[in-house]
Amino acid sequence: MLAATMATTTPKLYVLPGSHPCAAVEAALKLKGIDFKRVVLLPIAPLMVGPLRYGGTTVPGMRIGSERLVGSRTIMRRLDELKPEPPLLPAPGEESYGQVLDAERWGDEIFQGVPRRLIDAAFLRNPGAMESYAAETKLPLPRPLLRPALPLTARLMAIKNKASDESARADLLSLPQMLDRVDGWIADGVLGGERPNAADLQIGSTIMLLLSIGDVRPLIEGRPATRLVGYFPPLVGEVPPGALPAEWVAQAAPQTQDA
Question: Contact at 8 Å (CB) between 188 and 75?
Fold first, then answer.
């Protein structure tokens, strides 16, 4: 029955340009060799069209015939049902099964929001950088018509994501400890295998977006966590250095001790 569904219906994946959970689902679809149609929405548009098209107000959203799915973890579980090989999770009897599920849950519920709030804080200061994430995307409206709305879009995105200077600064300060956790999972073999699992895609897509923020990149470069970016094509888009306050970055940077 599931195979018949896939044979007759091409899934539609609803995404936003630069969205890291959308990138995770796209990587899962390509890993499994599932053909899909990518539907690009403008920021804030999911609030208006999402409930009708795929049953939610966030992305990624997916529609397979009359079936509607919302969220990267939900979609990836469904992809494993539709096409079990290669699996996105270890077999339930394997020791690493629970570890991968825990890492995926943390990546979705905790880590995923960090670059979202940081990039929103950066867009409020440099809204023009937002356009770079859609540089290779065909948008529903001409770019000259969209540019004047970028400052307002940045404000609306920050409101939707509950991003503020206080939350972004706290995220930046906690980032080194979060990266230590990711590095530890890689050292333990939970993440970073030859073939990615669901947690690799969930966390790797977040690392990829963080690396696109010029002020944040030096905090990540050289860490084992950067290996997870290798599961994805290069991300289009960048927030140039200097968008976030220099004192935030200095406080988050590793402190060197005098000899």
Answer: no
